[in-house]
Automatic annotation (TrEMBL):
This is EAL domain-containing protein. It comes from Heliobacterium mobile. It comes from the Bacteria. Residues 118-169 form the PAC domain. SMART domains: EAL (SM00052), GGDEF (SM00267), PAS (SM00091). Residues 44-114 form the PAS domain. Residues 346-595 form the EAL domain. One of its GO terms (biological process) is regulation of DNA-templated transcription.
């Protein structure tokens, strides 16, 4: 028995003790052995032959030129070829045309290394026309006579690849409509921008939003709203080129990347889409209720000067103007920049925001976050509200986008942090989390202000936390890391909000030292009625736990959802079933009174 690189050749079979691999090799080596050793070798050969014939792996040998010498019997069963169709044929006979060059390169690499290397994933073309995925490892075996031969072990990984492709699709596509999600779209937009910058292509962007979509969910139900979004996605895809990209960015907001389309043509297409949506019966229930379904669109032609965030911001500003101007409107960003300041509603909100601190129009509402283990309140999320001139509450969804567009978030969040600190000083038994916008991550002065506020008020140590959305954190990962690290050093805690809302890779979680992960409410909603959503939430919860982090479930709207997430092991819950946002007076604020207000949800 002769040892070659830990591979032992016994008669016409070889075995590697290191890898556990067995295979037949063409030709016998002349090895001088005694009778006892001959019997031992025969027994080894018999065992290895049995293993080879019963192996699930496909085993074969190739000449240095890549010609098939011999194969294991199961390879014929896998591929459908007869021996006469494979033996003495180039290995390319088995390979998918697109994978032939990389397999040849793989063989060259093995010739250099001379031993097993990392497996190569590739496709094989079967005789019946099907294509399947396999993973191959090669070894170069030297013989005492004749040239070296390749020894190949191939595993069928088709099911694994199918699962992998499915997971990639889920990670880059919207689960409801099937169109690409924000993560996919921003990548496509970035590549389009580079082509525009090079001067090789031109593109335009349409940002589409459903008018008054919240009324559909409020007046009817979420299932009808979901059907409306599915039908809208289908209509948008059916009215653009196959080279264009239609994506769902969030709730009722879609984006269309138009290839080879300039601003004027994009505007005409946007108007056409608005008209088709009005004419199309996308939601029979709405028609029966005599409710008109319309969309508004912001248009921007992409240039090479603005980055992805700026392009989306300008399109968003155009969309905001379109929605402010009425239903079923189209606004082109560059052609209408002067209209920004003319919109009455925008101007009114800007004035309210700028004078809110001085006039006492800002107010904090408190929403409890409840432990699932004992039903006790762990902390509160501070939610900002703005009062108009008549004392009516304006939702953050209305004024926050305006504040972000006009650079007012820094002042707003300084007020929120100051109020939160004062609140904690007067209520030593409570803990509060406040929200940080994506715009704030680039504001170093705001970070310094918060650090100083915490340092000057040691009583808030361990009781003040911050929430930042997954989208904001990933869009500016470096700044997010710095904020989290610096404020955690001051005794603050962090929660990553809206987790799972559109990013395929969770590798960034290792960089963000957050204390809590808040599972996006779109997954939680209706999990008591939708097994698919329930499975998604369970998977997300297990993923987060595997990373050593704690989960909070948003949108706990009823007892069934609360029971489900508790069974899954989600540590905390938040939602109207557990407690609504409330402006409880500070002099009455204590843990016991808040518990009474919220109710015990054990």
């Amino acid at each position: 028995m002769t040892a070659l690189n830990n591979i032992y050749i016994a008669g016409s079979y070889l075995h590697s003790h290191k890898t556990g691999f067995s295979a037949r090799v063409v030709g016998h080596l002349s090895v001088g052995v005694g009778q006892k050793e001959e019997r031992a070798l025969s027994e080894i050969e018999r065992k290895y032959k049995s293993l080879l014939e019963n192996s699930h792996d496909l085993v074969y040998t190739l000449s240095p030129e890549g010609v098939i010498i011999e194969v294991s019997p199961n390879l014929f069963e896998h591929t459908g070829y007869r021996s006469s169709e494979l033996l003495h044929q180039p290995v390319e006979r088995l390979l998918h045309p697109l994978d032939r060059p990389i397999f040849r390169s793989f063989m060259e690499k093995v010739q250099e290394v001379g031993s097993f290397t990392q497996g190569l994933d590739h496709r094989m073309s079967l005789k019946d026309g099907r294509t399947k995925w396999y993973s191959t490892k090669l070894a170069l075996v030297e013989r005492e006579e004749g040239p070296s031969i390749f020894l190949g072990v191939t595993k069928d990984i088709s099911e694994l690849k199918e699962t992998e492709f499915h997971l990639k699709h889920l990670a880059t596509h919207d689960y409801l409509t099937g169109v690409p999600n924000r993560y996919f779209f921003e990548g496509a937009l970035s590549r389009a921008r580079e082509k525009v910058k090079e001067g090789s292509e031109y593109y335009s962007l349409l940002l589409v939003d459903v008018d008054k979509f919240n009324l559909v969910n409020d007046l009817l139900d979420h299932d009808i709203g979901d059907k409306l979004l599915v039908n809208l996605a289908r209509l948008l895809k059916g009215n653009v080129s196959t080279n264009d990209v239609v994506a769902r960015l969030s709730g009722d907001e879609f984006a269309i990347l138009l290839k080879g389309v300039r601003e004027q043509e994009a505007e005409h297409l946007a108007i056409e889409l608005c008209n088709k949506v009005k004419q199309k019966d996308l939601c029979p229930v709405l028609e029966a209720c005599d409710l008109r379904f319309t969309i508004s669109i912001g248009v921007v032609e992409i240039d090479g000067y603005h980055d992805v965030r700026q392009i989306l911001s300008r399109a968003g500003a155009a969309l905001y103007m379109a929605k402010s101007a009425g239903r079923s409107q189209v606004i082109v960003a560059y052609a209408n920049e002067r209209l920004f300041s003319r919109l009455e509603e925008t101007s009114r909100l800007i004035k309210l925001i700028k004078g809110a601190d001085r006039e006492g129009r800002f107010q904090l509402f408190f929403m409890p976050v409840v432990r699932s283990s004992d039903g006790e309140i762990a902390h509160y999320e501070a939610l900002l509200r703005l009062q108009d001139g008549d004392g009516k509450i304006i939702s953050p969804a209305t004024f926050i986008p305006v504040a972000e567009s006009f650079g007012l978030m820094g002042d707003i969040e300084r007020w929120v942090v100051s109020e939160a600190v004062r609140f904690l000083e007067k209520n030593p038994l409570l803990s509060i989390f406040v929200n940080l916008s994506g715009e704030s991550l680039g504001d170093r002065d705001l970070l310094t202000f918060i650090e100083e506020s915490v340092e000057n008020n040691p009583v808030v140590h361990g009781r003040l936390g911050f929430e930042i959305t997954e989208t904001a954190a990933v869009n500016d990962l470096l700044s997010a890391e710095q904020w989290i690290q610096k404020l955690r050093n001051k005794g603050c805690r962090f929660a990553l909000d809206d987790f799972g809302s559109g990013y395929s890779s969770f590798a960034y979680l290792g960089k963000l030292q957050v204390d809590y992960i808040k599972i996006d409410g779109s997954f939680i909603r209706a999990i008591d009625q939708d097994p698919t959503r329930c499975a998604l939430v369970k998977g997300i919860n297990e993923l987060v736990h595997s990373l050593g982090k704690v989960t909070i479930s948003e949108y706990v709207e009823n007892e069934q959802i609360w029971n489900l997430i508790r069974e899954m092991g989600v540590e905390y819950g938040q939602g109207y079933f557990l407690g609504t946002p409330s402006p409880v007076p500070q002099e009455m604020m204590s843990h016991s009174t808040i518990s009474d207000l919220v109710g015990n949800r054990k």
